[in-house]
Design a protein that fits this description.
Two copies of one chain form a homodimer. By secondary structure, the first copy, chain A, is of the alpha+beta class. Chain A has one domain: Alpha-Beta Plaits. The first copy, chain A, has two helices and four strands; from the N terminus they run βαββαβ. Chain A has a four-stranded antiparallel β-sheet, covered by helices on one side. In chain A, strand 2 and strand 3 form a beta hairpin. In chain A, helix 1 crosses helix 2. Chain A is globular, with a radius of gyration of 10 Å. The relative contact order of chain A is 0.32. The interface between A and B is small, with 7 and 8 residues.
């Protein structure tokens, strides 16, 4: 499955790494691509990963999912 | 000694941490205070730390000293 999550508040490469790292720790996430300029985070995933878990992982890092 | 270094490009808490961490690794640096909004980095230091080393440490993290 593939989904683009719109994230607010990422301002630099460190932010990108923080979000990528958190998503990659969700079991089932296969790849993460971040477009820092637009805040678009593209995630490829399979079971057991859920969108809810991914949103939580992002918010735990201090960013907002739009 | 105390010096305020004006740094460009710090956008978030991660940037602040990166600059602080790099400066604290310079031998002789005693304390670092970062004002993210203005980019002002206040450093207390003693020998053998030099301003040149501190500038280098900041630039190595990808930020510009004004």
């Amino acid at each position: 499955m593939e989904k683009t999550i719109q994230v607010q508040g990422m301002t630099c490469g460190h932010c990108e790494k923080a979000v990528k790292g958190a998503l990659n720790e969700v079991e089932g996430v296969q790849s993460v691509d971040v477009d820092l300029a637009t805040g678009a985070v593209n995630v490829s995933y399979e079971d057991p990963a859920t969108l809810e878990q991914m949103h939580e992982a992002i918010e735990d890092q201090g960013y907002d999912v739009v």
